[in-house]
Amino acid sequence: MPLTTVVEHRRRVEQLAAALRSSTGPVRLRKRTSNLFRPRQDAERTLLDGTALDHVIAIDRAARTAEVEGMTTYANLVDATLPLGLAPAVVPELKSITVGGATTGLGIESSAFRFGLVHETVDEFDVLVADGRVLCCSPTEHAELFCGFPNSYGSLGYATRLTVRLIPVAPFVRLRHERFADAARYFAAIAAECADPTCDYLDGVFFGAGDFVLTRAQLVERLPVDAVVSDYTWMQQYWHSLRRRADDYLTIGDYLWRWDTDWFWCSRNVGAHLAPVRLLAGPRLLSSVTYQKIMRAGQRYPLKALQHLRPRAESVIQDVDIPLARAASFLAQLHARVGITPVWVCPFRVTTGRYPLYRLRTDTPYVNFGFWDTVRSQEPDGHYNAIVEQLVAQHAGKKSLYSRSTFDEQAFWAMYDRHAYEALKREYDPTGRFPGLYEKTVGRG
Ligand SMILES: Cc1cc2nc3c(=O)[nH]c(=O)nc-3n(C[C@H](O)[C@H](O)[C@H](O)COP(=O)(O)OP(=O)(O)OC[C@H]3O[C@@H](n4cnc5c(N)ncnc54)[C@H](O)[C@@H]3O)c2cc1C
Fold this sequence. Notes:
This protein is of the alpha+beta class. The chain is globular. It has a domain at about 5-170 and about 425-440: Uridine Diphospho-n-acetylenolpyruvylglucosamine Reductase, domain 3. α6 (about 185-195) packs antiparallel against α12 (about 325-335) and α12 runs antiparallel to α13 (about 385-395). It is built from 16 helices and 16 strands. A hairpin with a 5-residue loop joins β6 and β7. The strands form three sheets. Strands 12-9-11-10-14-15-13-16 form an eight-stranded antiparallel sheet. Strands 3, 4, 5, 6, 7 and 8 form a six-stranded antiparallel sheet that branches. A two-stranded parallel ribbon has the order 1-2.
């Protein structure tokens, strides 16, 4: 997609702001794609159409920054930066995730052990707030909104333009997959990498008791003469390769999107792990965007009626962040009490405690655990998601809010700083044009 001009960008923002100003009552952002996993119940809100704000505006090679519109997908941003030998410092691994969504929704990837969560790699952004103004927010301008925006999930306003930090990248990535049978040794290896990195990208997978993989990935300019570049965009599945090979090479583009083709491993839930299906689908359809559409269609009538024919199950789709020293204990209890495998393991660190709605410690790395599946259940609905929340609280962690939450209000605000949030809401949305954070993320407003 070609870059847009600043004039065109301003025109699109003004259209969105005008739509907000000329409407009354509660509003909601309309986007082309979504990675939200909590069904929403609000028919009453006016939709503000943000779909046109999906362009890259400019790339500054010298400053290593990209200016993008709020609904620009990482796929489009990466397409614009890779030919220049640059990539966003943190690229969330699903192609349809947008820069605005990842900044407000705590995006993460395997470079986060060096650079932090997505919002820590965003230098400034414009936010459309409830009275129709567009405020430029940075650590020095509207700093309280700049810091309060991550984890606000569109409840304080919508990011319309962001400045994203870029890093130099090489054409290829060498991957080394190391297997571990012992949790203590596994998390010690992660701690060692966080303290003194030997690689550019770091993530891993827990496949079950005694079966861990840690992947260290290194940017490389040239391939060794005998190296073969793998391709996991069609018939082969990346996640199987982790236990089958110790070494591997990918192009930088295929590395960044290595998890998208099979939505980590969740493509198996729609039959896309089967060879004939893959053959027919082809690389273009094998993508998280396709699986999202299928899953959403499955939640609608008449397919919903078929759910009664299946065994009862609870959907547990969560990403949680646990301080590294408590990670082994958390994972053991998660495995014993919920039992989902595989689990994605992504270490990260934060450099500042300035984000009140998702305040994390700066004196320890964290581990993000991602698990996305259903659990057979005879329990009341919500039982397993509530267990996850209890385990997160017991291990001094935090939980992302893109998916289902069952907290009562008191437990919720103990985790996400009510005082700071209410002050921001009074300042930027005093009449409640956007849903409140609790109403939106727990009440599904
Ligand atoms: C199965 C699954 C796996 C995931 N794995 C990862 C992962 O590995 N790495 C990762 O980084 N993330 C992951 N996510 C989470 C994802 O990054 C967040 O949910 C993120 O918010 C999605 O961004 P989006 O652009 O798709 O926004 P949406 O899903 O469309 O919206 C998310 C929320 O952000 C708000 N929002 C969207 N755009 C803006 C904006 N411009 N301004 C203000 N508010 C806005 C929306 O109103 C909504 O409340 C995963 C999500 C799922 C469902």
